[in-house]
Amino acid sequence: MSSRPPHAPDQPATASRLPDVPEPATPEPPPFVHLGPGTLTSALAGIAPERLGEFTGSWHDLPADTHLNTASPYRFRRYGTFRFTGGHLAPLPHGVFFQDRSVNKVHGGVPRLFAPLREDVARGEVLRTLVRTLWDHLPGPRAGIDTCGVHQIRVTATAGAEGHPAPEGVHQDGHCYVAQVLIRRQDVRGAESCLYDLREQPVHRAVLTRPLETVVLDDRRVLHGVSPIRPAPGTDFGTRDMLLVDFFTG
Ligand SMILES: [Fe+2]
């Protein structure tokens, strides 16, 4: 004889009998990561020092950015794009760099042709290793993202003329993710990197001071800006070298 009451349910009361409640959404990861230099340093540990020296030394061989329209150039750069799938980095034909006016109030809407990356940089294992490692640290999903743009940029400052890493002010780049890697900072003060939420409230501030210190951000969820640079006290010339890697859908 069953001990079950006459109207007892066949199944215990479970969530299936509750009113439909949406599954809790998976919380989004923070829209950026700030990596100390150890992350990329470790990734590059197996590469010959000579190759690393050639890579960082290539920032001494950047042509002036002719789109700045200043009396004397303070920004120097090269640019290249790559298909990046399965950890393989394949150079794409050289072309212009274009940003919409909605994201770049200074240069938006104007195709900008920068000098191409040097072959040794574009096809070297240093860049390939850096891009793979940055990919591993993108702060969010990666489905469909198969292309990246690589910028080598030097900004200089003299006693009479500060340098502007981001003349467009607080902005987005128009990509999915952007990695900002410090390569070299010499006799510079300033260059505070700041991230903002979409209401332009600051969410992170940092001065990148150690080579390979890196910020990787979700360009759709945060804005970014960098304050001008000036020569450090007691000097009359400062240099800040950055590697920027944009990740987007091809
Ligand atoms: Fe930017």
UniProtKB/TrEMBL annotation:
Any GO molecular function: dioxygenase activity
Protein origin, superkingdom: Bacteria
Alphabetically ordered keywords of this record: Dioxygenase, Oxidoreductase
Transmembrane domains' residue ranges: none
Coiled-coil annotated spans: none
Annotated stretches, region: Disordered: 1-34
This protein's name: 2OG-Fe dioxygenase family protein
